[in-house]
Structures are given as structure tokens and as C-alpha cells.
Design brief:
single chain, 10 strands, four-stranded mixed sheet, 55% helix, four-stranded antiparallel sheet, 418 residues
Amino acid sequence: MEMVVERENMIRALKRVEANKGAAGVDGMKVEDLREYLKESWPEIREQLLAGTYHPKPVRRVEIPKPDGGVRLLGIPTALDRIIQQALLQILTPTFDPEFSPFSYGFRPYRKAENAVRRAQEYISEGYRWVVDMDLEKFFDRVNHDILMSRVARKVKDKRVLRLIRRYLQAGVMVNGCCVATEEGTPQGGPLSPLLANIMLDDLDRELMRRGHCFVRYADDCNIYVKSQRAGERVMESVKRFVEGELKLKVNLQKSAVDRPWKRKILGFSFTWDKEPRIRLAPKTIKRFKDKIRELTKRSRSQSMEDRIGALNTYLMGWIGYFKLADTRSVLQSLDEWVRRRLRMCYLKQWKKPKTKLRNLIVLGIPADWAALISGSRKGYWRLANTPQMNKALGLAFWRNQGLRSLVGRYDQLRFTS
């Protein structure tokens, strides 16, 4: 605990929490107010931590819709508890992380989703062309506190630290103004939660390595690669027994399956069925992308085209920054075209009246007789947005001048620099 509250460690934790920003917890304190608060209150808080008497506040419950339906329950700790958790994380990570499995990629230093997808691609190239895609049901909500604490206690001997971690696990959740006790689970949203998840699932990694399986795990998503469907079904059954028997967790049978890798997804990606498989975007990833673009370009969004393009650019560049790993450039090109068609539809909706459409198309360089075919048409906006007239009037050069960023352009930059 002395290492946790040491000045340099706390300063690093404060800077990290400030950089991450985030919403306020149940006490309403904003991250930007945290530094001033600590100037007055830190000596007392430090003494409580060293004496083992500090009690965290409950987390604030937030529900985030999942792409596949349902909600993900997030627990937002107070700003003060976030900095203490971050300080704990910075001391505990060097203790636990070096001995984690090399096939675990989630929430670890110098590891990322790209490494997991590349490793899966290697397995498929080596002939492991069946995958046991295992999903743990509500993992973060079902973690058994006693089992987790016994894993933490293997390396942490300071009882004050163990007591503090257990108090964070049992701090409770504020729901409609009432504090609900948490008998199991580790709330997603705090800095410490990902490390605790990896500690809990390290036993699963060790078991899979002991059996000699080819696998990748990212948080609670685990993919095991085998050479036949029969082997996959056998592995699924035995690993399910281990997870439910030893770790007291539950496998989500609806989302888990033994199938071909190109029919499943991993971290938003999938693969082609070639002998040397290429990485591609999973169908659900494309669907989520289009749903988000529809939201940003829908008619009911009352905003200028400049603001709309600004919001689109922010999303597009963040999205391609993650999905640059995909080898299917042509898919990105078609998504670029689809985005531009959505924006052309927005212009047609803005212009509304036939006279306005005719005038604007002529201004954009379309001959009057050709423009009249659009202005007088009774076809829908979406269909008209893909006509030769609209493609010529609002083509690539137009959107470049408007400042719209291109997925393919950014993809080429990122692939070239990497």
C-alpha cells in the first residue's frame, strides 16, 4: 500500500484519469475538479488507505445498448475512486502481467486487438480451419468474488490491498437513488476491472496451454482453433466443464459455436476462406457502421452540412484507425461510395422543391435539360442520389472541397506508414 500511495505513483494516476476524462460518479464530482479536491483532502485519504480503513463509494449504473440487442451494464466509480484504482493498477500490473499467457491480448501493456487477429490468421494458415468460438455469459456481472480474491492473494500479501480490492468489488451499485449490494461481479467501467478479469481468466489460459490448444483470448472472448469439427465439439464440451466447474462462470451457448473461422467474427473482423486467409470486416461490423452513418445523416438531425461532415469525419477516422487491419480495400471503397450517396440524399432533401433542385444542379455544372430530369422526377431521394447527374454534380472533387475525409485515403496512409 505504501507503493500505491507514493507521490510519483499517485501523480501518474491523476494524469491518466484526467486524460481519460469520463463522467462523474455518484458524488457528482467531475474529473476536472479532482486535482483541487486532492490538494485539501489527500492527507486524510492517504492515512485511511495506509490504515486500511478507506471505504469506496458505490458505482453509478449506466446501461449501454449492445449491437446484438440487450444492454451492457457499466459501473462508473467516483473520480476519487478512479484515481485510487488507477494507482492500484499501476502497482499490480507489473506483478501479474509478466506471467499472463502470451495468447491473452485484452487490456494488457503493449498488446492490442490487432495482435490477436494476426495470431488467429496464423493458426488458420497452419491448417486449423475450425474454431471453437466461446463467449462467457455476462462475465463481468458473474465473477465469483471469493475465487477472484484467492487468485489475487497468490501474489499480493498486503492485507490492506486485498481488503481494498474486495471493498471495490462489494461497493454496490446506485440504482434509482438506492444502493444495491454486489454479491458477485466486477463492474465494467473502473480502471482496475480489466486487470481483475485477466487474473480471473488466467487459469483458463493455463489450462488451454497445458492441453496444447491453439487459442487467442481477448477479455471474455476466447477462440480456440482446431483441425476438425469433431475435435472442436470435444474441446467445446471439455472447456465448458472447466469454466463452469472450476471458475463458476457460465458459457453463453447462444453466442458460442464450433464453426469455420470465416463464418464467425473476432473483435469485429473475420477471414476469407483462402488457403492463406485474408482479414476482412465481419458482416455485423459493416451493419453497425451503416447504422451509425444513417444516424449521422438522417433527416431529423437538424444541422448544417458543415457540422454533419465534421461529425462524420470524427467517426470515420476513428473507425478506420481500428479497422485498418482489414485486407479488403474494395469493401472500404464501396463504403466510401455509400457514405457519399447518403450525403447526396441529404442535399436532395434540403433542396426539396423542383425549382431549387434545378437551380442548384445548374450552378454545379449540370446542363439544364439533364438537371430537369432530376428536378422533375418523382423517384425517391435515395434512388435519385445515385443517378449520373447527382454523381457528376456532387462527385469526389466536390466532397474533397467540402472537407469530407475518405476511408480509403486514410486506410492507404495508415497501411503505408505501418
